[in-house]
From TrEMBL:
Keywords: ATP-binding, Cell membrane, Membrane, Nucleotide-binding, Transport. InterPro entries: AAA+_ATPase (IPR003593), ABC_Ni/Peptide_Import (IPR050388), ABC_transporter-like_ATP-bd (IPR003439), ABC_transporter-like_CS (IPR017871), P-loop_NTPase (IPR027417). Residues 8-251 form the ABC transporter domain. It is found in: Cell membrane. This is ABC transporter ATP-binding protein.
Length: 265
């Protein structure tokens, strides 16, 4: 692996249930500092692709073929041990509903300390890492004394991202990371994603159905329909001048794109 190698390289990924192909990604790479979005209507196969990339379909009835390489380690067919070592320290998942993804019985501080301990980070180093991650996501450390239900949705989502940053994840996969949040908080989380990509060189793979959001943060976009990629390319090109009628229909369904058209937050 050299610095220019992509963090994530997907080739010929196909996921079937009972012989029916529900998702496929022929070719996808995400480099350091890059945000790639997968868009499409409900049921187009976005989340299935994301979960396969994270190795989360390994113990299910899904038939996964192709190759998913995260920092040079193959995910498809990998042992649970290999997947465990990748999760957290190399790749992390940020879910749609942050509060639901955080253990409700633990204060956030205990939760983050426990995650670090599980990844072999000692107490002395943990304090520095937590403080650095909380600064990165602009959260006050006082929040660590609270439980997940005692913080706002936006704070919980920032905390979920802080957890990934703290563990050193270089690839963060996010499934609809802002759709459970209200509009102003959505913008804050989008700005955070973009900033972490730029400042920390984190690679992001974001599943979304909201094209306005995608236009604000993504460098590249992949448009999926019925389990197949119909269009892919730089965000400005795909959303600014779509070649496929399905992409055009998705764009037509967006009530308002931000003034000035596509561009980063
Ligand atoms: N465990 C499963 N068994 C059988 N089919 C499944 C399973 N999980 C997902 N599917 C099917 O795979 C297809 C793609 O679903 P997926 O959740 O990936 O779509 P999506 O684009 O992420 O949609 P949404 O935005 O609603 O989450 C759907 O037709 C779904 O019914």
């Amino acid at each position: 692996m050299n610095a220019a190698s992509p963090v994530l390289q997907v080739t010929g990924l196909s996921i079937q249930y009972g012989g029916r192909r529900v998702s496929s990604l022929p070719d996808l790479s995400v480099a350091r500092g890059e945000v790639v979005a997968i868009v499409g209507e409900s049921g187009s196969g976005k989340s299935t692709a994301l979960t396969a990339i994270l190795g989360l379909l390994a113990e299910t009835s899904a038939d996964v073929s192709g190759s998913v390489s995260v920092l040079g380690t193959e995910v498809v067919g990998a042992s649970e041990r290999t997947l465990r070592s990748l999760r957290g320290s190399e790749m992390a998942l940020v879910m749609q509903s942050p509060q639901a993804s955080l253990n409700p019985t633990m204060r956030l501080g205990r939760l983050i300390h426990r995650a670090l301990r599980r990844h072999g980070v000692g107490k002395a180093e943990a304090a520095g890492r937590i403080s650095d991650a909380m600064t990165a996501v602009r959260l006050d450390e006082q929040i660590l004394d609270r439980y997940a239900h005692e913080v706002s949705g936006g704070q919980a989502q920032r905390f979920a991202i802080a957890l990934a940053v703290c563990l050193g994840a270089q690839l963060i996969a996010a499934d609809e990371p802002t759709s459970a949040l209200d509009a102003t908080v959505q913008l804050e989380v989008l700005t955070l994603i973009r900033r972490l990509a730029e400042e920390r060189r984190t690679a992001w793979l974001v599943v979304a159905h909201d094209l306005a959001m995608v236009s604000m943060i993504a460098d590249h976009v992949i448009v999926m329909r019925d389990g197949e990629v119909v269009e892919t390319g730089p965000t400005r090109a795909v959303l600014g001048d779509p070649t496929h009628e399905y992409t055009r229909a998705l764009l037509d369904a967006v009530p308002t794109l931000p003034a000035g058209g596509v561009g980063h937050v």
